[in-house]
Design a protein that fits this description.
This is DNA-binding transcriptional LysR family regulator. GO terms for molecular function: DNA binding; DNA-binding transcription factor activity. Belongs to the LysR transcriptional regulatory family. It contains 9 helices and 12 strands. The protein is of the alpha/beta class. The protein has 3 domains: 86 residues, Arc Repressor Mutant, subunit A; 93 residues, D-Maltodextrin-Binding Protein, domain 2 (3-Layer(aba) Sandwich), CATH 3.40.190; 100 residues, D-Maltodextrin-Binding Protein, domain 2. The strands form 3 sheets. Strands 3, 4, 5, 6, 7, 10, 11 and 12 form an 8-stranded mixed sheet that branches. The protein is elongated.
Length: 292
């Protein structure tokens, strides 16, 4: 079975006319007819019934149709991968990631992407939301993964990847381990570790003030690793996005009343021409089975 034969058969099925099918495939009608007859002889059954000038699909041809379509789809996908491979390694993808995003979930996506597109070079840098927006707008980044908060305006295209809850983290022997969920009121006057780089910090602090919840920050840091280490050292608890917790020794409980969630999104600049590598990553992010 040759690819040309498969294309001829599919064209004939679509048109139910060998002359039109030949024109569609840019071959002569005798050449198309001969190729289909050769395939039928190879398969040992007729794909079409010929009634004078009429062409009808046989029952065998109808049963074979999904398989022939799959062959063509796979061939086109393989050709696309080959074309992309020749182009992907020309320019690296410059990906900006918000510094408070945990690497565990995102790294799995990036690993799968690079396994599929082995010719891609990837350059990852971290930053705060404002910094990433500026670098993306100035063409210093191709893509950015961040929390768009209240929106980014018409200057950016936002593709939601996943949502994640905020949890309360604490050391194993902390009194909060007795709770299944933790209400904000349960934390009043409790020493805590302040995540200064959290893009939702102001909102969380405002909620605490509105609910008369008093928190005593015994330690403050912009570094996520320091925050978690100091929590584990029993300095206090911390609020943390659930997929950002990296120390397995830490315990965590969902924050409720109120619950807090954030949305992690892939951000691009509308109208900007993507390199083949960047376009491939955007498609892969759209198809990926993200957590939650």
């Amino acid at each position: 079975m040759e690819m040309s034969q498969v294309r001829y058969v599919l064209a004939a099925i679509e048109t139910l006319n060998f002359t039109k099918a030949a024109a569609k495939c840019n071959v002569s009608q005798p050449a198309l007819t001969k190729a289909i007859k050769t395939l039928e002889d190879e398969l040992g059954a007729s794909l079409f019934h010929r009634e004078g000038k009429r062409v009808l699909l046989s029952e065998f041809g109808r049963s074979l149709l999904p398989h022939l379509q799959h062959i063509i789809q796979e061939a086109e996908a393989t050709r696309t991968l080959a074309d992309n491979f020749r182009l992907l390694d020309q320019v690296p993808i410059r990906l900006g990631i918000m510094s408070t995003i945990g690497h565990m979930k995102l790294s799995r996506f990036l690993a799968r992407f690079q396994k599929e597109f082995r010719g891609v070079d990837l350059e990852v840098s971290e930053g705060k939301v404002g910094d990433l927006k500026s670098r993306l707008e100035n063409g210093e980044l191709d893509l950015a993964v961040l929390n768009p908060l209240d929106g980014l305006g018409d200057s950016f295209r936002v593709q939601e990847l996943y949502k994640e809850r905020y949890v309360v983290i604490f050391p194993p022997d902390h009194r909060l381990s007795a709770f299944n969920v933790i209400r904000l009121s349960d934390l009043s006057d409790e020493p805590y570790v302040d995540r200064l780089s959290c893009e939702m910090r102001d909102m969380v602090m405002n909620v605490c003030r509105e609910n008369d919840v008093k928190l005593y920050a015994r330690f403050r840091s912009e570094r996520e690793d320091w925050v978690q280490s100091m929590v584990l050292a029993r300095i206090g608890f911390a609020f943390m996005p659930e997929y950002s917790v990296t120390l397995p020794e830490l315990m965590q409980r969902p924050l409720v009343e109120p619950s807090v969630t954030r949305t992690i999104s892939l951000v691009t600049v509308p109208g900007r021409q993507f390199s083949p590598a960047t376009a491939a990553m955007v498609r892969a992010a759209h198809k990926y089975d993200w957590p939650g």
